Here is the input.
Amino acid sequence: MSKRVILGGLAMLTASASVADAGFNQSRAEKFAKKNEEHIICYYLYGLTNQSSKQDIARGVITAMAYAKGMKKQEAIYALGYGSGKISAILEADPDHREDLIEEHSKDCK
Here is the structure.
């Protein structure tokens, strides 16, 4: 599971980071993702259910919180990818209960 999570974060980082500004603190981004897991789960679930406007708002809020913590753009993007990869791996690991897990996690999303 951890390989998928890291790969998800790295894929998002690679897609949006420029070569000139690629330095970031991976452990700080992962710590941020764990502390803001609820928000990142909602961000992921909005995308899963095609609620793009809510997903855009969630991404903006999460990014603003990361910037407020002094994080760079790449760290914020990695944190989103890391958290999204984590919930994706959880849902993939238990396909028989996928809908139940989505319903359980989406209760906190507004």
Observations:
- The chain has a mean pLDDT of 83.
- DSSP finds six helices and no strands in the chain.
- Residues 9 and 82 are 4 Å apart (CA to CA).
- The radius of gyration is 14 Å.
